[in-house]
Each structure stands twice: as C-alpha cells, then as structure tokens.
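Kindly draft a sequence, keeping tokens residue-aligned:
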Amino acid sequence: MTHPNAASRPTQAVILAGGQGSRLRPYTDDRPKPMVEIPGTSTPIIGHQLAWLAEEGVTDVVVSCGHLAEVLQEWLKASDLPVRVTTVVEDEPLGRGGGLRFAAAHLPHPDRPWYATNGDIWTRFSLRDMADFHTERDAVATLALARPRIPWGAVQTDGFGHITDFIEAPPSTFEINAGVYVFSPGFAALLPERGDHERTTFPRLARERRLAGFPIPQGAYWRAIDTAKDLTEAAKELAALGR
C-alpha cells in the first residue's frame, strides 16, 4: 500500500559543495571538501551522499560547486552515479542563501519540494520520514536536528557539589542544525539573492511558525566533517559500525 504522503516526498535535491574547507587542509589543498575520503570507506563524502539520496527516492541532484570545482566535476563525470547530476558554479560568491537560491533555480521541477544538504555531512537516516514530518506540519522548511557529542569529558555533580560521575564525550543537551533540509516549492523565492538565509529567511519563518525541526532518530549516524580530527573520529566510528 502506498503511504499517503508518498506523493509529497522530494525526488530532487541540492548539495552545497562550494566551501573552501580551510580547516581540513592539507586534505583540501587539491580537492574540494566533499571530495575528501573518510579513511577506510574508499568513498568521498559526496559519493556517500549521492548513494544515500538515491536510496531515499531522489533521482535528480544539483551540486553547487565553488573551491576547485573542476576536480569535483571531473570526478562526477568519471563516476557511475546512482542519480542524474547537474553542477552549477557561482560566478561570484553569493553567500549561503544566495548560493542555495542559485542552485535551486536549476532543479528540474521548481513546482515540487526538494531536499538540500551541506557537502560535508556524513549521515544516514530516513529522509522519507523527514519529508512526511515536513508535510504533516505544513512547514515551508524543515531542518534535521542533531545532538553532537561534546568533545570533552563531562562531570556530574550532586546537590552538595560532590562529583558523582565522569562521562566521556556525552551528547550535547542542545540540538543543532544538522545541515540536511526539506524545502517546499515556494521556499526558493524567500531566499536572499545574496547573503545568509540563516540570518534572514530562517528566523522569519520561525517567527511565523513555518519552520520545523526534525530530530535525527536516536542511533542514526551523523557527523559534520570539518577538521582532520573529524576525519579520524568518523573513520573509527564507521569502522565500529561496520560501514
């Protein structure tokens, strides 16, 4: 039986792959951030993302390139991809919101919803469930929310100030924007031509109660690959998960 929300689940997506990746040097000296491989996976981050999107019903992806765009474009051309991919390159930096709007203009179905993901996110969870959550809340935009692990050990104390326990790298008590999104068809028109949507469009939608937050299910893997330490941590975690 077809799920009642199946028709409103996106089949198109944008990957924002234009960042400099300066904190991942030397890995990003000769390739853009999404082309960095996590040791032991033999797949660049973007290869993992395209496979995940395809598994979740996506058929068309627009990749927004920037830093070393030609390296990414060459890899995409040479690879056997599970989805149709179009690449776009900004002539001048448009900022995150402007870049998202520019990429969205190249989606094959502007009148249908779409996913977007930052190019440095390695994760696996049900995008179909997130799309259904988005539809049920009648949201214009839905952000995936993660609870990243705090990089330090935490201390628990009792009411008298005695230390009762040490917890190694506990999950944060706050949820953060996980860099994965579902957008309704009208969202692109609300984005700035240039500048940052997280300072303009998102706060406005939040005030209007049209912005939803989908907590990534407990046990699902999520990590932003921002530094060399993230690469080694991800390699350890994924080896432990057998991926």
Notes: Residues 163 and 219 are 28 Å apart (CA to CA). The longest strand covers residues 176-183. The radius of gyration is 19 Å.
